[in-house]
Sequence to fold (49 residues):
Amino acid sequence: MKKRFLATLLVAAMTITFMNAWNNYLWPTVIIFFCLQKSFAEGITGAVK
Fold:
């Protein structure tokens, strides 16, 4: 029973660690996207005109 509890604990810890890393990766990506989106949109509309 103890072994199973430790395995569950390990999986939970790995999941939390992965989610934190993924969250930290996503936020800079979202911020960069919003920063670049304005200039990107202006570049496309400028190219169309």
In short: Residues 2-48 form the longest helix (47 residues). Helices lie at 2-48. The chain is about 95% helix and 0% strand. The mean pLDDT is 87.
